[in-house]
Amino acid sequence: MTATGPWWREAITYEVYLRSFADADGDGLGDLTGARSRLPYLAGLGVDAVWLTPFYPSPDHDGGYDVSDHRAVDPRMGTLAELDGLIADAHRLGLRVVVDLVLNHVSSAHPWFIAARAAGPGSPKRDRFHVRPGRGVAGELPPNGWRSIFGGSAWAPFGDGEWYLHLFDIEQPDLRHEHPEVAADAAATLRFWLERGVDGVRFDAAGSLVKDPAYPELPPGWRAGDPSPYSDRDEVHEIYRRWARQLAAYPGDRLGVAETWGGPEVIGPYLRPDELGQAFAMDPLYWPLRPEPWRAGVDALLAATTRHGRLPAWVHGSHDVSRAAQRWGRDGARAMLLVMLALPGAVYLYAGDELGLPEVALADDEIRDPVFRRSGGEERGRDGARVPLPWTDGPAPYGFGPVGSTPWLPQPAGWGGFSVARQADDPTSALALTRAALRLRERCWRGRPAEVAWLDAPPGCLAFRRGADGPTCLVNLGNAAIDRRPPGSVLLASAPVGGPGLPARSAAWLA
């Protein structure tokens, strides 16, 4: 607990997409030893916590999110001893460690599913999964018309008249958390990692753990993002209340954060006092860069979270969306970083966005993401934001792994131009801005009142303050510079503030 609440209340958490962060052994895949070697960089960047994406044994059909053993480490990623060493090093550097728990589904290579597949129709071994008889004369049609989030039907046949549900890839069968063995195993997994000293847990696909047992069809005109019978149901919150009690049984304000996709009405229930500390605010990733949606959206998210004594967990980027520089443009990404750091709440930064990395256009045969395959190539998938990081100018693979090793996704020519080494001493770089912003946030914004006071601003701009004597954040969301200098002295700006005023797509903190 800090003077303003638990450590995570306004924390900056850096997402380490493990397989693309640092490769110590040269096999092309990032690993725990590589990540451990870069912890001093993260401490120097100024973040509070590190979120590690899955390192569990996996056939790797979906970037490690198809887990075959939730309480072990994939040998390609390292060992439990190496993870323990990473946690210990992080704590010595003042960093907390958050791990990803993927409890909505397992890999098709998980022992439970192997047994279910072999057992045959009606077997109790299939009761741990969502299994239904198919439609049609011989069960040759899926049980209903639900669609996978990755494309195609959400059902796959066993080949004996019964079908299993997979909201994601066909290799990721969904678990039935109503089943006592599934519930007990999830509790054991959570306990296992908490006892190893992790400071928090991100619950993957948080809203999908409970489905309507009637498996009704989606209503006509349903679109992704609309309420559905398999997401954010009331019953899911009893699961999080149980897990919240587990988290509370350990010292150190252990964090539970839900990977939620939706607006305030979705996020709010996860933050009730007996549930989780955070739920991802992903909607801002898609708000247009105009004042009206940002002002209304910020107000709504603050109302939904503060009513439960929580604050938003702003997501600046993640491995599931395109790079910030792609979504908002290079200048917009720098500006929105300053906006999110000034708002009340926590902020999640994605590895490489502090370098301003662009989205990488990959050839069809280079893409690994199952979204590409399941959508028949209509969706390019998420791999363009997952290309391994550049740490040095060169040669390839630019410090990601030993010289001569081949990363699991190809890095483009000239990738070293975005590297940590190239940006470290450049005061105009994205890295320099991020470091300066994280340092200054401690003094200017952290711990200030949770309310946002909106101020008069030029057309196309937003301005706000937190507390009567605090700094002002001014952001120009328009396509042209404002025609006068911002009032007050400039503490930090995402672009040079010259004679005409604040440039287009830029933000400034003003004293």
Automatic annotation (TrEMBL):
<dbReference type="GO" id="GO:0004558">
    <property type="term" value="F:alpha-1,4-glucosidase activity"/>
</dbReference>
<keyword id="KW-0378">Hydrolase</keyword>
<dbReference type="Pfam" id="PF00128">
    <property type="entry name" value="Alpha-amylase"/>
</dbReference>
<dbReference type="InterPro" id="IPR006047">
    <property type="entry name" value="GH13_cat_dom"/>
</dbReference>
<dbReference type="InterPro" id="IPR045857">
    <property type="entry name" value="O16G_dom_2"/>
</dbReference>
<comment type="similarity">
    <text>Belongs to the glycosyl hydrolase 13 family.</text>
</comment>
<dbReference type="InterPro" id="IPR017853">
    <property type="entry name" value="GH"/>
</dbReference>
<keyword id="KW-0326">Glycosidase</keyword>
<feature type="domain" description="Glycosyl hydrolase family 13 catalytic">
    <location>
        <begin position="15"/>
        <end position="386"/>
    </location>
</feature>
<protein>
    <submittedName>
        <fullName>Alpha-glucosidase</fullName>
        <ecNumber>3.2.1.20</ecNumber>
    </submittedName>
</protein>
